[in-house]
Please model this.
Amino acid sequence: MKNMCVAHRGFSGKAPENTLAAVRMAIALPFVRWMEIDVQLTKDGVPVVIHDFSLDRTTNGHGKVKNMDYEHVRRLDAGSWKGRAFRGERVPSLKEVLELASGRLRLNIELKTSGDMYPGLEQAVIDLVNAHGMRDEVVLTSFDASALQRIKGLDPRFRTGLIYDSRSGDPARKLKELDCSFLSISFDRLNPRLAELLAERGIRVMAWTVNKAKEMRRLAGMHSEIMICTNRPDIWGDTFLEV
Model:
């Protein structure tokens, strides 16, 4: 299917982002082939699926993820902020998400890190993905170039992707420097010339975060291979599966 739908942090328009509830709701839609999630490390080295460096916005906890043990993080409520129906939803471990997604969804796993913020994050993620036999179903992405370089040094078989939202610079050149085959880019940064150039070079492009049908159609008109990352996969379905 062209212009594939990527569920951003799961079906985060309807369920609390980066939770098992959001993953299940994405899996329930047969046209969702990909999902984007965010991964960080707890103080005791467990990869967990959460976007913000702080616990404050999406849980009833406070403080930095990196300063908390996994047992503390897993006891937090990560669902009530989205609605009473999701009360008691937890911050999942990456292991839990991999087990749920295996054979159902391909994953864009964003490593949320900068510099030496999370020593061992890349190895921990690689080990889990390999343990679940999902290396070919995963792309590991990051804003942080050093994280992408570490991944290639640890296991060059992994596909890597650069996340890019700058208004300037040359993303195509940066991808080549980092040996990346995937570009995650803000949808309003994309233009037809760049999309065509990247396609010619064999780079897979994912545009984020696209929640309006008009923008989805504009991107689809730009190039058929652009992956559309959205909080609202239901809108993607209404837009591209019209009878």
Q: What stands out?
A: The longest helix spans residues 121-131. Residues 43 and 117 are 11 Å apart (CA to CA). Strands lie at 5-8, 32-41, 47-49, 106-111, 138-142, 159-164, 182-186, 204-208, 227-230.
